[in-house]
Design a protein that fits this description.
about 250 residues; mainly alpha; 12 helices; about 0% strand; elongated
Length: about 250
């Protein structure tokens, strides 16, 4: 009998938990009440419940005054759950479908931020890094007066450093393997495309050394001039000046 009582008590408890966790009947809400309910879920960080409700709201009230708000916070819900690709998709939908929304500038920034969060260390494939740079640059171009432009610029610089490091380390590996033409190509990429990163002066320096080694004196002389114009205060500038002088005399 006691055993039967425990089973009954457990069943009653389960029933109470189901009732307490059941979804709110939103059919009685008008559009503003429904939106306020959605925001209560969002503010309470009940993101799992918020996502289907935001989706339902957007289907039910397309074109309402709260449409762009709901679209933005649906994207933010995914972002807060670290579902960055889904968040990026929802932010891009707002930008594309509701271009007059006051949420567009913030959505463009957050779109870039999604890819920034997905960008991996330099050793891995860098498509998300490049996409983040592209979207941050779009944010700067379209909203140059926004207060987040400085932050976006700093993140572009950080991501460019990552891309430069990947190219630089590839060049170092090729140089160690004595694939010198491949090393020159990768050092050149760093110097040309990432000339304002910390890896550029050393890449150009190594490129000049390899060009001299391979008898490419005209190329080395041209690169020495570039080096001295861009990085006159670099630790290797004095040596490059001497190389330029020597190559000019022997030309």
């Amino acid at each position: 009998m006691f055993r039967n009582f425990n089973v009954a008590a457990l069943l009653l408890l389960a029933l109470l938990l189901v009732n307490c966790g059941s979804a709110v009947d939103t059919s009685k809400y008008n559009v503003e009440e429904y939106y306020n309910y959605l925001m209560s879920l969002y503010n309470e960080e009940d993101y799992e419940a918020a996502i289907p409700e935001f989706q339902n709201f957007l289907l039910q009230y397309t074109g309402s005054a709260f449409n762009d708000d709901a679209q933005y916070y649906l994207a933010m819900t995914y972002f807060n759950r670290e579902q960055y690709l889904l968040a990026a998709y929802e932010f891009s939908k707002l930008i594309r479908n509701i271009p007059a929304s006051p949420f567009v500038s913030e959505s463009q920034y957050m779109l870039a931020e999604c890819y920034y969060q997905l960008a991996p260390p330099y050793q891995l494939e860098q498509s998300y890094t490049k996409k983040a740079i592209e979207e941050f640059q779009a944010f700067i171009d379209f909203f140059p007066a926004d207060k987040k432009v400085e932050t976006a610029s700093a993140k572009i610089k950080e991501l460019n450093e990552r891309l430069a490091e990947k190219e630089y380390q590839a060049a170092v590996i090729y140089e160690k393997m004595e694939y010198e033409r491949a090393a020159i190509k990768y050092y050149s990429n760093v110097a040309e495309f990432y000339h304002d990163t910390q890896f550029a002066p050393q890449a150009l320096y190594r490129k000049i050394q390899l060009e001299i080694k391979k008898g490419m004196n005209s190329e080395a002389l041209s690169d020495a001039a570039v080096f001295l114009s861009r990085y006159p205060d670099d630790a290797n500038a004095k040596e490059i000046q001497e190389i330029e002088t020597r190559l000019s005399e022997n030309k």
